[in-house]
Amino acid sequence: MLAESITKERKEILVREKAQQKVLGQMKKELRHKMESEIRLLQDQLVRDDDDAYFRQLDADRVIHNLQLAKYHANNV
Q: What are the record's GO terms for cellular component (predicted)?
């Protein structure tokens, strides 16, 4: 009788452990997917920010060049 209850208890413990491992595995999988998604979004944002900075610098260089040309033409007129 005692052996049966111990065996039954062990089986219940194993079932609970399996269920916990399954839930833990699912949580890890969901977390991994969420982190991969967030990393992808951050990488995309970094690329956009780099592109924005590059084109702002191009615009600034163009404005400086046009200003220098205007000063040159104003001094030579």
A: centrosome; spindle pole
**Dist CA 40 CA 44 (whole Å):** 6
CA distance 17 to 4: 20
Q: Enter the pTM of the model.
A: 0.61
**How many degrees, rounded to 5, is the angle at CA 37 between CA 39 and CA 52?**
55
Distances from the Cα of 69 to the Cαs of 13, 64, 66, in angstroms? 83, 9, 5
Helix (H, G, I), strand (E, B) or coil at 16: helix
pLDDT digits (tens, 9 = 90+) for 30-70: 999 999 999 999 999 999 999 999 999 999 999 999 999 99
